[in-house]
Amino acid sequence: MGVISATSAVPAGEALPERTFEAVAVADARRLYWLALSILRDEGEAQDAVQETLLKAWRSWESVARMERPVAWLTRVCVNHCISRRRHLRSRGWPPVGLIEDAVSRGDPGMAADHMDMDRAYRRLSLMQRAAITLNYRHGYSVEECAVFMGCRPGTVRAHVARGLATLRKELGDG
Amino acid sequence: MVEIDPGLDTRLRAYFDHIEASTPPSNLTDAEAYAPHRRRGMINLFAGLAAVAVVAASVTLFAVELRNHHGPAPAVTPSLPASAALLKQMPLMGQGGVPGFVHVVLPLTRGSGSMRLKTFVPQGTLYLQFDCAGPGSFKISSTNRVIGNDLAQCSTSFGVTTLTIDGPKGYDGKPLTLSITAAPSMSWEIFIAETGGWLPPLMPPQADYQVLGPITDGTGSTTLPTFSVAPDESITVNLFCNSGTSGKALEIAPNPLWPDGQQVSCLVFNADGSISMDGFGPAVSDSGSSGLGPISLQFTADPSVSWEVQITEGPTGIILPELGNLGPVTQDVGVAPKAIGMGSAVLPSFTTNQHYTIAFSCSGAGSLTVISSGVAHVATTLCGGHTGWFTPPHQVPGQPVSLSVEAPSSVGWEIQAVQVYGSTWGAGGATMPNGG
Hints:
A: 10 helices, B: Jelly Rolls, Jelly Rolls
């Protein structure tokens, strides 16, 4: 017999507890911001990525709240936005070269010399490599989870992590 | 987690610590900030919110479907016994009942006595919801004995019952015929739904989007017709797949759009009525300056996986220029709310004591003209993701400024008046570059 459960009905429309937009999505904004900032390395774009993610979540909260893991959905949307957004901006020739050079020359006044070396090396990584390292190394997601977030196969995630770390070693003179 | 040598581990950890030491802007943690406003700086007016549109449409359609479940009168045999008045309201959707995201196999049907119901091939998890009233026994059974529920007596206090039958082992994809066995004086109602085969509805494309691949649905592996994407266009692939309860994925082979291929996680219907949608949704990309193609998407999936896809191309997102370091301002300080729209429109007037310039972006085929207090400025004759700014002359502090836009309906735009830095009022007091 295939019947696995028989339940007495509960009135429809009963809300899931603590699944409000504020309790889930907005509370996760800080983590999403750091995730986006780690991938994009631009505060303005990271802010846009998080706002875009939360805007999507807010507009479709009725369905997002029903998900088993809404935070995973937020992560996926944010990562996808970071990757595709950056590609879009580059293809449009934005920001202008002058702005990039100006920003690089100014640097981050709060950044120590060691961090500057790492920052320069890290910016050499592709967005996919940054996303893979950030998700897998920093945020502790499994390779399989990273694959879902990034829309690729687990083997591709492993390759991005390995190549990204190899690039860092090379750029930092450790390799 | 990844194995990493201690030296790099220490430096990388410190680097991420440094990144995460930065405080997110306060507006990100303020829920009120998201509801009425758009995000800062950039919009992808047409393509970027496709995901939202599709999900919103899904929710809307779900709501419509839900209303339909409750709204129309159920299928009823011409004359029901008096016990029919004791039947409860059905179907009950949501927690403890039937999940909202389901494919209806048998709409709410009322009857009395014994009856043979429709024959169908179940897909995914099957939900049988029923109620009965009247004296005697009530039995639901299926031809291959997959389903069997036998009530010795219908009780008006028991209420609606929902049976959840997991697949595919339960019915092995074979046709299933349900039968109800009951006394003639007994009334009953039944509603049957399944998770398999359900896919969210796809929205029709925007007016200025071109359909490269029409809405196509299917099951298992396939190769879609070849298409190409023009230069500087945004391509949107709306793809959903449903594997019932098995949680399978659909693989897209490497192609010019996704050189590494793509793995799409299918919708998963959980036993508790929730739905897992990790990885679903549209993918938006940019064709670049040389275009893309020819592209032929090749899907690899289990035959039990159903899918639907639609491919469109349209104008890329438009970016309101950040004028800092470029134009007459050092920071984008708006003196009026940002306005976003398509075609011609009259925007709300604003009043400011600041000298201002007007930043704009537009996208689509056609010209954009911005009219400020009766002075027209042809921003661009061809909006191909064009951005720029202009500073209206004869500005008077504190005087309301009217603003309107003239453009074909296919042209999208974003406009904002921003404060000019370091300029003074009056003739010759300010440098007034024109970025348009």
